């Protein structure tokens, strides 16, 4: 009995979703590592008394991401994702800085 095109498509879809799940696990691990570094950056920014937001640095990161993606079609989507990542990183930095400030008082 031959597998129908629909069955082949379903099997292919399941395989592709499994690959996405694996990639998501890798991305989650990298995000956890990134936030460990963000924690250190928050500590250093507090010690250096510099603001959390650095627009020039964020623009540099977005340009690097767009270059790393290597696709004009995908670059805008990657930029949007990294805008969110950086916004959450700033929120986490502010949380860490404010928590250590209140602990010191």
TrEMBL record:
Matches recorded under PROSITE patterns: CHORISMATE_MUT_2 (PS51168)
Gene Ontology biological-process annotations: chorismate metabolic process; salicylic acid biosynthetic process
Superkingdom to which the source organism belongs: Bacteria
Annotated GO MF terms: chorismate mutase activity
Domain Chorismate mutase: 7-97
Alphabetical list of InterPro entries matching this protein: Chorismate_II_sf, Chorismate_mutase-related, CM_dom_sf, CM_II_prokaryot
UniProt keywords, alphabetically: Coiled coil, Isomerase
One Pfam short name: CM_2
Coiled-coil annotated spans: 6-33
Gene3D superfamilies: Chorismate mutase
Database matches in SUPFAM superfamilies: Chorismate mutase II
Listed name of the protein: Chorismate mutase domain-containing protein
Native source species: Lacticaseibacillus manihotivorans DSM 13343 = JCM 12514
């Amino acid at each position: 009995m031959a597998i129908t095109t629909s069955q082949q498509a379903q099997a292919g879809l399941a395989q592709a979703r499994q690959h996405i799940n694996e990639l998501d696990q890798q991305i989650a691990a990298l995000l956890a590592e990134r936030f460990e570094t963000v924690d250190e950056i928050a500590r250093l920014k507090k010690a250096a008394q510099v603001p959390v937001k650095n627009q020039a640095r964020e623009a540099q990161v977005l340009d690097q991401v767009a270059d790393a993606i290597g696709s004009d079609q995908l670059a805008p989507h990657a930029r949007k994702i990294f805008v969110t990542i950086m916004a959450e990183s700033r929120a986490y930095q502010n949380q860490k800085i404010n928590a250590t400030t209140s602990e010191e008082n």
